[in-house]
Amino acid sequence: MxxxxxxxxxxxxxxxxxxxxxxxxxGRVVDRDADRAAALAGDYDAASGSDAKSLWDDSSLDAxxxxxxxxxxxxxxxxxxxxGKDVLLEKPMALTAPECDELIAAAEETGRVLQIGYTHxxxxxxxxxxxxxxxxxxxxxYHAKAHLYLRRGVPGLGGWFTTKAMSGGGALIDLGVHLxxxxxxxxxxxxxxxxxxxxxxxFGVTMQEYLYELMWAGPPNYDGVCDxxxxxxxxxxxxxxxxxxxxxxWACNLPVGTVPDSMVALLGDRGGxxxxxxxxxxxxxxxxxxxxADSKLTLPAVDQMSLQMADFAEAVASRTPGVxxxxxxxxxxxxxxDAIYKSDKTNSPVTL
Length: 352
Description:
This protein is of the alpha/beta class. It has helices at residues 10-21, 34-42, 53-57, 73-82, 97-110, 124-134, 164-167, 171-186, 304-318, 327-346; strands at residues 2-6, 25-30, 47-49, 63-66, 86-90, 114-117, 141-149, 192-200, 231-238, 243-249, 262-268, 271-275, 281-288, 291-298, 350-351.
């Protein structure tokens, strides 16, 4: 497979490195900043430019990775598919569920592969937990809990990350979507039927008063905008009867050490498990020989970006979805995000 990359920022660089690591050729890199595109392309002896049309017109390219601000996901993916390219689209799939519907329709009409970049399916703990669930070790899983707490981690303050018109939201649509996708994946892709949620904007909105500790996509632009959430919480009920409890923060005042900074937990009627998102082991609870027992399963290290790229390449070759998120699965995540924001706005539960 020969790959084009739209967006030469940090995530585009990660995709390029992942591609080469699994034998995928990087043929062209495009970014609105031509110099940045040329710099990344130079690492792979690839062509470069600033016009996305050069990707669509390049007949040597089989597929495109799209890693640009969220507001461009839908239009760029539509153009790529209509130009005959398969697409690995960074998360979130789009800004709203109706936008996802447009992408689903286009993928069906054009026959193109459209995979959404939810990499936590490919981590050691994510794939390990899926194996435990699929083997029936937990029995019927009736509840999932997922959280990710940054203390002062608002990204790109004043830039597109914190401008709702470009990002679609804050911590929820940036980090929360990973947790929602992983939860859906582990629960067997149920459909949400009810959502109660709240989203808070307490830190980034203070702009210059915000004392940050790290800043992806920094430095801050204090002349810019911050009109998005930096903390979100929700309870999601599914058609299966299972539930998912979500908390996610770009910034919060939870004391360090109170709980792990990240955690996913599954409760089943025969067993349970938990893990940290970036961990190397699962903690398991089960009944063995008539006794309740806790155990630890250590997992070998993997590179989730490389595994995702290999999975995408196989989907392109076979025209069959692999482990990666399908458009329909990507829409399920976005429908929950939309419902959380609606529940927050109306201060009441939402029925889907």
